Amino acid sequence: MAGQLEQLLAKAQQPTTVAVIAALLIVAITTRLLTGAPESGSKGAHTAAQPGYYVPFLGHVPQMSLNGDSFLAGLREKYPQGIVSLLFMGKTHSIVYKPSLATLLMNKPHSVADESFVSKRLCVTNFGFKKSDLDLFQAFWDEVGKAYNIMLSGEGLANLVETTAKSLQSSIADFVTFNAYPSDQAEWERMAEADVVDHNGEQYVEAELMGLSKNFVAQTANPALMGTDFCKNFPEHPKYVWDFDAGFVLMAMGLPSWLPWWPLQRAQASKRRQLNCLYEYHEALGKWSKGEEPGHRWENLDDISILQKERVRIWEKHEVPTSVRAAADLGLVWAMNANSSPLVYWMLLHIYKDTVLLEQIREEIAPYIKGVQPKNLFGTGISIPPKLETFDIEGLSTKCPLLKSSYVETLRLYVSAWSIKYVQQDTTLGRGDDTYVLNEGTYAHAPHDLHQLDPKYFPEPHEWQPRRHVKEVMGEDGKITVTADMGSIRPYGGGAHMCKGRAFAMRELMMYTAAIVTMYDIRRPEGQEWSVPKTTKQAASRHPTKEMKVWIKRRPQPDEE
C-alpha cells in the first residue's frame, strides 16, 4: 500500500501531470470569471440572470449532478424574481419557480412551448416503443390523449371511483389477515414480510408499512382500471412496477441497457416482464373486442374500465400492433401506480404518529365511513373480522377538510413533479416590467417542488403540517365553510398536460387512508418510536431510504344491527 502511494505521489509531481492540473485549474477559473450574467434589460422584457459555472459546455451539470435539490434551493434564495437561466450541455435551460410565471409557462400553447417531446422520448427510453412506432402513434396521439379526459369527470371517473371503493370495501378486512404462514396470507402481506406477534396478551401483525400499504392499494385498485382478470393472472405485477419506478430516471437518461448498474438492470428486467404481461392481456382484449373467445384465463374482460374500453376502441380502429398497445399500457399502469400508491404510506405515517390528529380525523370522517362487527353465527371457534358498512366517498372528499388538507400537505412534501417545455418560438413570461424572454430553441422547466418547499410561501417547509391548507370561506349567504384546497402548489403539473388522473388520485388516497384509519390501530413495535425517515427522490414521488416495521391490530367496531 505504501509503495502504491509513493508511486502516485511521484506521478503527481511529474512535470506533465502538474501542467495538466494547472491547465484544468486555469480553464475552470477563467470560465468562472467569464461566465455568469445578471438580469439584463431595464424596461420591458428582461433576460433572466445566469449564475457562473466552471466547466465549458457542461455548464451547471456538475452542480445539478452533485446535489440538485440544494443547488436549486440556493438559486431560489439568490434570485427571488422567480426565474434563472442555466446551461446544460451547451443548451440554455430556464428554471421557473415563481407560481405566477410557472402558470403562464404551463398555459403556453403547443405551438409556442411544446412538452410532447418529453412524452415521446419516454415512450422509447422507458415504455418499450421503437422509434418507428412513434410515427404510427403520431397519427392518433391526440385521440389517445383525449381519452384520458374520461378520468376527469362524469361516468368515467364515477366508474373508476365506484369500482375501487367496492374493491376496497370487500378487501379492507384482509389488509392484515393474522395468518402466520405466507401461503395463507394476502399477496400484499407477503410482499411486506408480514408476521404475527404476541405482546402482553394482544396479537398484532408486524409488517413493513410502505410495502404493505402500496401493494394493498395496487392490488385492490388496479382491477378498476385493468379489470379483475389482469390482476388475477399477474399478482406479481405491482412488484415489477416498483422495480421499474426505482430505475425510471436512469432509463430516461438513455443509459445503455448493458451498463452493469443494478437499479438500471432490475428496471430493464421489470420492463420486459410487464411488457410480456401486457402483450398477453392485449392479445386477449383484441379477441374479446371482436367477439372471439379470448381463452380460459380471460373470462371477465367486460369489467375493464370505461377508459380501457375507449383505448381498445382506438387500437382496433387504427389497427395498432399488439406490441405498441402493450407499450402504451405500460405508461398508463406506471403512472396510475407510481404516482399515488406510495403516498398512502406517508399519510398513514404522519396521521398515526400524531395521536391527537388521529382522533380528530377519525371524528371528522365518522359520518361518512363506518365499520361494524358482523354477528358470528359460527361459534367462538371462528373469528369474523369487522367490515365497512357505510362508505361515502364524496362525503370524504368534500366534507372532511382536515383529511383533505393532510392529503394536500402530503402532495406538497412528497411529490416532486417537474414540467419541461421546448420553446418553439420566442415568447415572454410575466407582465409589465416583470417580463422575461424565453428564446426559441431553448428549454423551460417548472420544478414544482422548488415552490412547494419555499419558506416564503410555506413556513417551516420541511415539516408536515396537516392544517396548513385548511381555510374558512364565506359563501354568498354569509355562512362560513371550512375547506381545503391546493392553493398555489402544482403536484400534478399544469396546463393542458396536467395529470388526467388527479381527480381519481385524490379520491383514491383519501378513501384508502380513511378506511385504514377507521378499521385499524397501527403502532411502532415495542421499544421503538415513530420517526419520519429520510427520503430519496424517484421519478414521481419521494420514498423512504429505510424500511419501517409497524404493529397492526383491528379496531373494535360496534355490533351490526
UniProtKB/TrEMBL annotation:
Membrane topology summary: Single-pass membrane protein
Alphabetic keyword roster: Heme, Iron, Lipid biosynthesis, Lipid metabolism, Metal-binding, Monooxygenase, Oxidoreductase
Protein name: Cytochrome P450
Biased amino acid composition, Basic and acidic residues: 544-561
Span list, region Disordered: 531-561
Domain of life: Eukaryota
Binding site for heme: C499
GO annotations of cellular component type: endoplasmic reticulum membrane
GO MF term (any one): monooxygenase activity
Cofactor: heme
Record localization: Endoplasmic reticulum membrane
Location, primary (coarse class): endoplasmic reticulum
Family assignment from sequence similarity: Belongs to the cytochrome P450 family.
